[in-house]
Design brief:
five-stranded mixed β-sheet
């Protein structure tokens, strides 16, 4: 099945309830011998003349995710496209008999053909979209409305250029448009789901320092780490804290007195400080 075939069948089902009982529907191009056909039931001809993209000038972008009952992603559905399918509709009543047609018979036949075209105009005025029971194939499966409308020729699309190519005289006609939705196939070729996440961390060198910070070399600091706010850190340096015991000897009077003092350096950028 194809979109155009489904459009033809859907319109034929719709016209069954619009036209009088026994009126036929044909989709082949009009021919000159139809004007000289043997008596028979009247019919309308829907000559497919043009297909254009409907709605926006550019197709919608993006897609929607389709998941199963367990929430697993099973596919991605592209956006729906719409196409305007235009038909040139003519009505054919046929001559009343096998003999030469009189002017009264020709006038009766013309009025009957106009009546068929008028029924289509009334039906387009009364409805904007085909009923669900008229749709067939992909148009029914889409679950979206198929809009129908009647109108005149648009600039550059006149049907007057059609008649010479068909070899028939210009006839009363109208343009019937069906705006059909076309659902692109769902994309199911998906990458496998992720099974794990690997995270990594690295220490970046300080601005202006080659490679790792140079202050990472040297002896390891000893003693407890002082408390309080951290000192201001210059770019590219790391402070080291050390504790030293300073012993001083001094002679006062008759004895020697030894005095010991402990200090915690505030941290020099080049190392530790000695104080006597």
């Amino acid at each position: 099945m194809s979109t155009l075939r489904d459009a033809d069948l859907s319109l034929a089902h719709w016209l069954e309830g619009v036209l009088p009982p026994g009126t036929g529907v044909r989709f082949d191009a009009p021919r000159a011998d139809w004007e000289r056909a043997v008596p028979g039931a009247p019919f309308v001809s829907l000559f497919l003349r043009d297909v254009r993209r409907g709605g926006q000038e550019l197709p919608p972008s993006g897609w929607s995710e389709v998941r199963d009952a367990d929430g697993r992603l099973v596919g991605r559905q592209p956006a729906v496209r719409h196409y305007r399918i235009s038909y040139t509709v003519t009505a054919w009543a046929g001559p009343a008999g096998t003999g030469p047609e009189t002017s009264e018979e020709a006038s009766r036949r013309t009025v009957e053909e106009h009546d068929l075209l008028g029924l289509l105009i009334d039906a387009c005025t009364a409805t904007d979209a085909l009923a669900d029971d008229h749709l067939t194939g992909a148009l029914a499966e889409a679950g979206l409305p198929s809009f129908v409308r009647c109108g005149g020729d648009e600039p550059g699309r006149s049907a007057q250029d059609v008649w010479p190519g068909l070899g028939i005289a210009p006839r009363a006609h109208l343009v019937l448009e069906l705006v059909a939705p076309v659902v692109p196939p769902m994309v199911t070729d998906l990458a496998p789901p992720a099974r794990g996440i690997v995270l990594g961390a690295a220490r970046l060198p300080a601005p202006g320092a080659p490679g790792e910070t140079a202050a990472t070399t040297g002896p390891a600091p000893t003693g407890p780490v002082p408390t309080g706010p951290a000192p201001t850190r210059a770019a590219g340096t790391v402070r080291r804290w050390e504790r030293r015991t300073i012993t001083e000897s001094r002679r006062a009077g008759s004895g020697n007195e030894s005095e010991s003092g402990n200090e915690s350096g505030s941290g020099n950028e080049s190392g530790s400080g000695n104080e006597a």
